[in-house]
Amino acid sequence: MAGDQSHERVLAIDAQPRMLASLQALAASRALPLDTADSLSEARSMLAGGHHGVVLLDPRFPDGDGLALLRELRDGHRDVDVVVFTADPSSQAPVQALRHGASDFLRKPCSPEELLVTVQNTLERRDLSRRNREISNRLRRSERLYQYIVDSSPDLIYVLDDEGRFTFVNDTIQRLLGYQPQMLLGRHFSQIITRADRALAQCCFNERRTGDRATRGLELRLQPARGGHPVYVDLNAMGMYGDGDGEAAGRFLGTYGVARDVTERKHAEAIIRHQAHHDMLTGLPNRVLFQDRLRQTLAQARRAQASAAVLFLDLDRFKMVNDSLGHSFGDRLLENVARRLRDCLREGDTLARMGGDEFTILLPKLEREDSAARVAEKCVNALEPAFTLDEQEIYLGVSIGIAVYPQHGETMETLVKHADAAMYHAKATEATHFAFYDTNMGSRLDHYLSMETGLRRALGNNELSVVYQPQVNASDGQTTCLEALLRWQHPERGAIAPMDFIPVAEQTGLIVPISLWLLSEACRECLTLGPPGNPPRLAVNLSSLQVEQPDFVDGVVDVLNTTGFPPERLEFEITEHLLLRNTEVVVDKLRDLSGRGITFAIDDFGTGYSSLSYLQRLPIHTLKIDQSFIQGLQNSGDEATLVQTIVAMARGLGLAVVAEGVETTEQMRALQSMDCHTMQGYLFSFPQPASALADPGRPGEGAPAPSATRVNAGSRQ
Ligand code: C2E
Ligand code: MG
Ligand code: MG
Question: Is 3.30.70.270 the CATH number for 272-440?
Answer without folding.
Answer: yes
